[in-house]
Amino acid sequence: MGGIKHKLIMVCIIGIGLALVVRAYDAMYAGRVYPSVTINGTSFGGKTPKEIEQYWMAKNEPFEQATFTFVFENHMATVSGTEMGLGYDATLSATQAFLVGRSGTFVTDLLTKFSPNPTNLTPLFRFQEDVFTDTLDQLTQVINIPVQDALFEFRGGKVTAFRPSKEGREINLEETKKRFSDAVVNLPTSSTRSVVITLPVNPIKPSLTTDRVNAFGIKELIGRGYSEFAHSIPGRVHNVALASAKLHGLLIKPGETFSFNEALGDVSAATGFQPAYVIKEGRTVLGDGGGVCQVSTTLFRAALNAGLPIIERRAHAYRVSYYEQAGYKAGLDATVFAPSVDLKIKNDTPAYILIQAKTDTRNMTLTFELYGTSDGRKPEIYNHVVGGITPPPPDLYQDDPTLPVGVVKQVDFAAWGAKTSFQYKVTRGGEVLQDTSFTSNFRPWQAVYLRGIAQ
Questions:
Q1: How many CA atoms lie within 13 A of 98 on its CB side?
Q2: Residue 386: strand pairing partners
Q3: C-beta of residue 164 within 8 angstroms of C-beta of residue 120
Q4: How far apart are alpha carbons 289 and 273 in whole angstroms?
Q5: What phi, psi does 91 have (nearest 5°)?
Q6: Is 36 helix (H, G, I), strand (E, B) or coil?
Q7: Left if phi > 0, otherwise alpha if psi is -120 to 50, otherwise beta: which for 406?
Q8: CA 347 to CA 310: how far, in whole Å?
Q9: How far is residue 366's CA from residue 344's CA, in Å, rounded to a whole number?
Q10: Cα angle at 57 between 55 and 63, to 5 degrees?
Q11: 235-239 contact pairs (CB < 8 A, 24+)
């Protein structure tokens, strides 16, 4: 009995001693992390939570000071590390480290505090992924291009539906995220805080290309013409849209000379054209088809851009303001008036040429696109000179007995005279296919007003 009692006393003494040691140990590390705690392999024993938080906040400085610029061609977007909340969660690391050995379970805490193996914590690296995602979303909207399969329908001697195949592209988001992650990892040792990340953009091939869906060899855009017609009266706008629609979808055979007048056909009220201003017998008057020259001028520009031979072209009698809109110099125009004045263009390419017209009556623009097969020719317009500028004659007022007294109506519009010329050269490799010049002699034009005299 005495031996058992002695043993119990010894156990009590040891237990009390152990409790005193643990209590003293806890008092020593009151408000501080136990020595057995490491974060990412670094010991933080004896540190207060505030000191640990400050340590990781200092680690965050490179990330907070960083800017990331995502770039593709002329598209870019920049976001800062601060905007993304990029860095370690300092408060969480400090809290987790301090709670090691303080779970409230005596045995577990005892083993943790005095374990020969440290408790290693992993710091939480976080960022606001929605900010990163929003930045990429903005870029995808301007960079990504949907792939377009070809469409080509031919009925009744005319192409009724055409859409060229077009390669698409899209940002490789997974690779972008990897490049971003790699840049973040390298930030602490980098000499710069301005990080430029080139966006990986993948091409997307169409499943059905243009050259596979037609028998005419029409593969690509070979020429484009553009003009604007702001401030046109409604009748002129109507005629521009109607005339361009009549040419839309036409095919020019290889070796064929295209006649604008023949392709357009009769221009009159009977074929849907409305009265608008035309030049006739030295005057600007209202006549059916005013605005058709906007169409011939734009097609002329497309043919020049495609490097095609211009067999026939006539300049206007005077400068027309529409043809100098969008920054074009005087002289890049072509007038037509059936049957004597025509625009003729030869297709000397190896394939058919498809005419596509796009009329935007809201923005008052007209575009012609010529599709065919490129043979490598390069057109060039140079030495475009506008000189011999002469002022318009004085305004002319004519009495008109059909108008009441006091009414004045303008029927012709002043324009400055000019003489223009430009060189047109087309080459293919070392061969010169065309080398010619185009000239225009624009007369100064008088403003004419009708003055009412009827009582």
A1: 16
A2: 420
A3: no
A4: 5
A5: -65, -40
A6: coil
A7: left
A8: 10
A9: 19
A10: 130
A11: 235/274, 235/275, 235/276, 235/290, 235/291, 236/276, 236/277, 236/290, 236/291, 236/294, 237/291, 237/361, 237/364, 238/273, 238/274, 238/276, 238/291, 239/273, 239/274, 239/276, 239/289, 239/290, 239/291, 239/292
CA distance 261 to 254: 19
Give the residue among 266, 287, 268, 269 at the shortest CA–CA distance from 277.
287
Q: To 10 degrees, what angle do helices 292-306 and 234-247 make?
A: 40
3-class SS of residue 196: strand
Which tokens is 374 given? Answer: 């490129």
Alpha helix stretches (DSSP H) within 144-285:
173-186, 234-247, 260-264
Any idea which residue has 């374990």 for tokens?
115
Q: How are beta strands 67-72 and 194-198 bridged, if at all?
A: parallel
pTM greater than 0.70 (yes/no): no
Q: What is the DSSP letter of 156?
A: T
The amino acid that residue 397 corresponds to is Y
Residue owning tokens 């110099």: 329
**HSE toward the beta carbon, residue 391, CA cutoff 13 A:** 3
Task: State how far the Cα of 440 lies from the Cα of 430, in Å rounded to an integer.
Answer: 30
Q: Residues 373, 252, 437, CA angle at the centre, nearest 5°?
A: 80
User: What's the CA gap between 230 and 322, in Å, rounded?
Assistant: 7
**In this structure, what DSSP letter does residue 92 have?**
H
Per-residue pLDDT of the chain (455 residues), as tens digits, is 556 766 666 656 665 656 666 677 778 888 899 898 999 999 998 899 999 999 999 998 999 999 999 999 999 999 999 999 999 999 999 999 899 988 888 888 888 878 888 889 999 888 899 999 999 999 999 999 999 888 777 666 677 788 888 899 999 999 999 999 999 999 998 889 999 999 999 999 988 788 777 878 888 899 999 999 998 888 889 999 999 999 998 889 999 999 999 999 999 889 998 877 566 555 555 655 678 999 999 999 999 999 999 999 999 988 988 999 999 999 999 999 888 899 999 999 999 999 999 999 999 999 999 999 999 999 999 999 999 999 999 998 988 888 899 899 887 788 999 999 999 999 999 899 999 999 999 999 888 888 988 87
